[in-house]
Amino acid sequence: MSIYRASVNNPVTTALVFLAFAILGVFALTRLPVDNFPDIESNVIMVMSAYPGASAEDVENNLTKVLENSLNGVSDLKDITSNSRENISILTLEFEYGTDIDEATNDVRDKLDMVSQSLPDGASSPFIFKFSVDDMPIMILAATADQSVSALDKILEDKVATPLARVSGVGTVSVAGAPKREIQVYCDPSRLEAYNLSIPVIAQVIAAENRNVPSGSIDIGSDTYSLRIKKEFQDPMELLDVVVGSYGGGTVYLRDVARIQDTLEEKSQESYTNGVRGAQIVIQKQSGYNTVQVIRKVKKELSRLERNLPSDIRITQVMDTSDNILRTINSLKETIMITFLVVMLVVFLFLGRWRGTLIVILSIPIALLASLLYLFATGNTLNIISMSALSIAIGMVVDDAIVVLENVSTHLERGEKPKEAAVHGTAEVGISVIASTLTMLCVFLPLTMISGMAGIMFKQLGWIVSIIMIVSTTAALTLVPMLCSQLFSNKPKTGKLHLAIFGPVNRVLDGISHGYSRMIAWCMSHKKLVLGGALVVFVGVLMLYLPKMKTEYFPSADQGRLSVTIELPIGTAQDVTRDVAARVYEKIKADVPEIKVLSYRFGQADTDNAFASMQNNGTYLITMNINLGSMEDRNRSAAEIADIVRADLRLFPEINKFNVNEGFGMGASSSVQLEIYGYDFETTEKAAH
């Protein structure tokens, strides 16, 4: 028994099979996470080591080269790049796609253990990051304060960063650029010399006194008590009573040789939001979690935490990746819905039967929902690529169903019974329907076999379109003939309203059909002319448009954000950088009224802040994050605003170079950069100039 006759003879079974597909697809749709791009497998490992107090050249010669030489022998290593900056050495190891990153990490760890004894004194043990797209910040917040500015770092760490880090799905919460409290001890050199003391001695005494010391335990009766001497200073003025030495039989206190100042840390990284000193809170998610859901949980928790903060602390949203994700996904949803309605209208217009239209339209959601089962089963997300695949395939789904339906209708018009017409009509075009599907699979199925980054990005596209085509063909060969046998009759009823609407339409379609037949007949009698004309058009299009066609890795998209990096001459003092940053902010703010939030930072990051340390930072570098809001709320695009920012930056002679990117991370467009590599700083500097 053929598959067509089996489906027609067992309508309930056929209907239940496809109903099960639809129900499971709806279940998968409710469980699918939403993200911007597909999950991209990590093939990059970063190794970072801190060398406090060392210059960039010392870090390069004494630390980076040692690490490079040890890691060059790691297997499957494609490329290794090092970045030596003041206090920090960062090595980026890129592996071939397909490499087991966990095994590569173990290999890197073994190599580092072998050279741990060769690292310079004072350098920290290297630690490893498995870098991937999931490590990109999903949210950046800015905090500003008035009276609480001196304690802002501790407040944010204790009352914001730590609670947010406990939110499900949140990976790391880093506070950067916050003013840090610092107790500064200013020693009088002449008094130190008079009392025969030195700065290292003073530092050692203060460090020894400022600690809580465990002192064993004591038994009293049947109880045991732990003893601890609490010597940590509660008030900065207690430092003045510390004994730092003796002279001439008398005791020398710290007050005798120094003064105390309770102030903010000097030369630390500074962060400003809309011109006000504050801090940045960078939030990263854990691998495999849904970006949109994590950000929703963070916002909910943040609204609760803000009620417990001092009244002068204000938290502003600088970057929220979920906004762009939701805008993109909602736009694709609208495209799919509009396409669905247009397809339904066109099918109804051409077929002239509402039952036939219903049969064809039913195959669309069934095929689309079945493809979502693949995403759910493989742990993928609903993203730009998968939604684009759905919008591409929605027009292909109805092709096979229309062919089968039209042929069944022809058999019904000949007077056959509905069941026989459904079976015979489907059998006649079955091979053609399968052949047309196979040709489509030849186009999209190879996308699932591409390797590298292109394969990661477009594998979903290939699988989804292929699955949709297979399901739609199966539905056309089983569900459509079954529904035709149940809903159609060989004597369709046509009333006056039907004739009034579809009479003119049918006449137009008949005219198009006759004209097409004549054109085909003419083409068949002039084969050489048709082939020659097609060849001329093909070559002409290639010659005219192909050389002018631009290429890029990712299309430029208006994400409502700009990332700006400004570099002043190396060695610029932080006070000068602060002045330049303030003037640049005022200029950009005046020329770009669309700006919602402008946050910038400069200065050397603390080595304890891993995320900030991995960024390019220093006293001569300024980094800006500009939030422009949704493109629907402004008249100028992000690209136009980026050009205005570039023009403004050219007006400042202090700026050595700058870079303005649209967006943040993947998909951002950047200018061309020329990098010169070498081991001799003087030679490479001459080549650069």
Structure description:
The protein is of the alpha+beta class. 51% of the residues lie in helices and 19% in strands. The chain has 21 helices and 19 strands. The strands form five sheets. Strands 5, 6, 13, 14, 15, 16, 17, 18 and 19 form a nine-stranded antiparallel sheet that branches. The chain has a four-stranded antiparallel sheet with strand order 2-3-1-4. The chain has a two-stranded antiparallel sheet with strand order 7-12. A hairpin with a 2-residue loop joins strand 10 (243-247) and strand 11 (250-253). Helix 2 (11-31) packs across helix 11 (354-377) and helix 5 packs across helix 9 (291-306). The N and C termini lie far apart (81 Å). The model is unreliable at 665-671 (pLDDT under 50).
Helix content: 40-55%
Count of separate DSSP helical elements: 21
Mean pLDDT: 82
Rg over C-alpha atoms, rounded to the nearest angstrom: 35 Å
Number of strands: 19
- The fraction of residues in strands falls at 15-25%
Largest sheet: 9 strands, antiparallel
Q: Termini distance? A: 81 Å
| Overall geometric form | elongated
Low-confidence sequence ranges: 665-671
Class inferred from helices and paired strands: alpha+beta
Write a concise synopsis of the structure shown.
This protein has helices at residues 3-9, 11-31, 56-71, 101-115, 152-165, 189-194, 199-209, 254-257, 291-306, 321-351, 354-377, 384-413, 418-444, 452-477, 479-487, 496-525, 527-545, 574-591, 610-614, 638-649, 681-688, and strands at residues 44-50, 77-85, 88-95, 127-131, 139-144, 170-176, 181-187, 213-220, 223-229, 243-247, 250-253, 258-264, 270-273, 276-285, 314-320, 561-567, 597-603, 618-627, 657-662.
